[in-house]
Each structure stands twice: as C-alpha cells, then as structure tokens.
Amino acid sequence: MLSLCAFMSESIHIELGASKELKYIPLLPQIKALVGDEKNKIAVLANVTAALHQTLDVLWTGFYLVENGELVLGPFQGPVACTRIAFGKGVCGTAWSQNETQVVSDVDQFPGHIACSSESRSEIVVPLRNTQKEVVALLDIDSRVLAHFDETDRTYLETLCNWIGEQVF
Ligand code: SME
Questions:
Q1: Which of 27, 108, 111, 127 is deepest in the core (most CB within 10 A)?
Q2: 142 in contact with ligand 1, CB cutoff 6 A
Q3: DSSP bridge partners of 60
Q4: Distance 151 CA to ligand 1 centre (A)
Q5: Closest CA to 165 of 139, 129, 132
Q6: pLDDT tens digit string along 145-168?
Q7: What is the pLDDT of residue 7?
Q8: Atom of ligand 1 nearest to the CA of 113
Q9: Nearest-angstrom CA–CA distance, 163 and 148
C-alpha cells in the first residue's frame, strides 16, 4: 500500500501489486479528491504527475503545455526532458496535431520519436482539452518496457485528462 501524504485529503492509497485496471479504478477518484476544486494549473498537474508516477511504475511522467504555438515542458517526474516540442513533431507533437492519443509500443518504430531518455522503450501521450475542445496540454508517460501501454491505459488516462482539461484550463 502506498501512502503519499499524511493528510487524509492529500493521500493516495493504491495496492502497488495490483493489476493495471485495479490500480486505475481506485486511483482516478482519489486523484479527483486530491485535486478538489483547485484551479491552479501547476499545482494540479504537479500532484497528478506525482500520483501517476508513484502508482504506475514507469520511467517518466509529465505534462507538456501548449504555449504560443509550441509545447513547453510542465510538471514532471523522472529524468530531465526536452523543454520545447514543435507542433507535429515527435509523439507529443503528433498527439497534438492529430488531436488523438498515441499509444506507442516501440518508440524506435515511431517516425520522428524524440528520445529524451535512451531508456524509454514505449510511450503513451494523451491530449487535454479545454471547455472549447482545444488541445491545451498533453500527458506523456514513458516506460523502460516495450509495449507497456495498452487500451486500458488509454481508457483511464483519457478519462483523467478529459476531467483535468475541463477542471483547470
Ligand atoms: N518522446 C517524446 C518527447 C518527450 S519525452 O519522452 C519526455 C516525443 O517523442 O514527443
């Protein structure tokens, strides 16, 4: 059992040995409770990053924010990463330009993949949209393991990102 914080309203309790789905099912309501009615983007994205990263056993978890026509690095956990990504470039820029989640089983097979860490083998990138349905940010999660991400990740992370997008953007 993982306890991230001593305060009841700021705790995440997830069975780390559980299956992927049995982690996501309790994680999402706990993240919503943790965020509450907080509207500050950095505060919300930072805590969501921490909750996901410490639950999912991955290499890198973080957000890129749309700013002046490009993606700029936001809150993250893991190795240092590229600061800016252009529209349509890499997995993140592709998720943005196509307005669609990218599930990449093998990053070496993705044309134009941007290798921020040589340890990354697979990746999922999920768009966040504001209430006008514009892409305003991207959640990016990288794994050291090939084909780490699947439709279960897509389903739950899209639900989470849809909620965050409407909550804080
Ligand atoms: N691999 C990403 C770049 C961001 S890092 O993985 C943190 C991409 O191709 O867009």
A1: 127
A2: yes
A3: 142
A4: 20
A5: 129
A6: 999 999 999 999 999 999 999 999
A7: 44
A8: 9
A9: 24
* pLDDT tens string 7-36: 445 788 888 888 999 999 999 999 999 999
pTM: 0.94
Q: Which of 121, 126, 165 is nearest to 147 (CA)?
A: 121
Taking residues 45-71, what's their average pLDDT?
97
- Looking up tokens 């990263």, which residue turns up? 53
- Residue 49 structure tokens: 């990053």
d(C-alpha 67, C-alpha 149), whole Å: 27
Q: Determine contact, residues 53/157, Cβ cutoff 8 Å.
A: no
Ligand 1 atom closest to the CA of 81, numbered from 1 = 7
CB 91, CB 104: distance < 8 Å: yes
Residue 133, Cβ density class (10 Å: 0-12 exposed, 13-18 middle, ≥19 buried): exposed
Give residue-wise pLDDT tens across range 31-44.
Answer: 999 999 999 999 99
Tens-digit pLDDT profile for residues 67-123: 999 999 999 999 999 999 999 999 999 999 999 999 999 999 999 999 989 999 999
